[in-house]
Structure formats: C-alpha cells, structure tokens
Amino acid sequence: MEKMPYRPELEVMEVQTITPATKTAVVTSDWRQGLPVLAGRQVVLRELRASDAPSLFALLTTEEVARFISPPPSTVEGFERFIAWTLRQRAAGTYVCFAVTLKGFDTAIGIIQMRETEPGFGNAEWGFALGSSFWGTGIFQESAELVLEFAFDTVGAHRLEARAAVKNGRGNGALRKLGAVQEGVLRKSFHRNGEYLDQVLYGIVEDDWREARQSRKEYLGVVVH
Length: 225
Prior knowledge:
The protein is an alpha+beta fold. The protein has helices at residues 53-60, 63-66, 76-92, 139-155, 169-177, 206-224; strands at 38-39, 43-47, 95-102, 110-116, 123-130, 159-165, 181-192, 195-205. An eight-stranded mixed sheet has the order 1-2-3-4-5-6-8-7, sandwiched between helices.
C-alpha cells in the first residue's frame, strides 16, 4: 500500500492521550475495541502506542524505506498524530495498523496496515513499512503471514490487494513470496519525488490462501511423521 490513507494535512484534532496497551493479548472477539496481539517465532504484532512515535520516525523516514511510499510524517509529533488517527479509524471499523516488534523487545520497528475498500472489509488493501536494518531477516514474511491469518480468519476479508512500484524489486519479491498474484500494471499511478511511477497490482484471495495454508500443513505433517 504505497499510498497511505492517512493524510497529515487533514488532521485537525489534537494529539490524544493514549493509554499504553499491556503486553498480553487482548481478550475480545471484536477487534474494533482493540487489536489482538499476534505472536510468531520472531515477532509480536500489537496495537500502536504514542510511545512508538520516536522509533517509527527514526526507522521509516530513511531514504531507502521512504522512497517507494507516500511521504511519512516528517516529525515525531507527526507520527504521534498518525498513531492517534489509526486508533480512531480502527474503532470506526475501517482500518487496522499493527506495530511490528521483535519477540522479547517492545520497540516498534515497522508497521503493517490494512484498510477496507468495500464496506465490511470484504475487499481490502494492505501494505507495510519496515526499518531497513531488518530487511532480509524473515521478519516481514512472518509478520505478513500473521496479518493475513488475522484478515481472513478474524476480520472476514475475502480479498486483499497490494500495490508495489515496478522499480521496487524488494517489495515485489516479498509479495510474490507470500503467494500474491500479479493481476496487472497500473501505469503512471503513483506520484513520488516529482515523477509518476508504474505500479504492479497484486491480489490474494481467501480461497487460494486457505488452500495454500492447508497444503503447507499437510506437507509439514508428512515431514514430521
């Protein structure tokens, strides 16, 4: 999702005081009341907090990270406003944004976000940004798989779309590795740094994802036995 749904120029509310979430999973069947904690082997995904603003500012505003996404907030205060906005949109049921952290550490090193493009989240668009120091470590792959499971099993999404600039080789490769299918090229559809870039449109459909997940489980079962 290279075009961030959040727009700082539309933000007119004061930064809200956000009560820090606990490190335990949220016990609720309604993600609109608070995102659950999603844990993998290396990562823990949780709700964003105002205290995440400094680390996200430091990691997501570098040139290598920001070159293929809409300009991120340019200050720590801007990230605080973004985080407050994500909580309001989550409560409204239109948007989800997880902080990516490493297991055993609580510092946010990236985000994975998802927004509805059809009421009720039947169709949705998703995207990610991760500090460059953590590229190529498997952290994104594991985090993305956790969010896909959450999207299809908990939110009830039917289809997820993602866009990646044709020039963004790493982003395209990451999406293909997840099983995303290239569905077309959107010509000159993304404006960045004074030029319009072509984007690849990818789709992941619930039925295909479930079939692939079942195949992986069956394969692992054969290996174990």
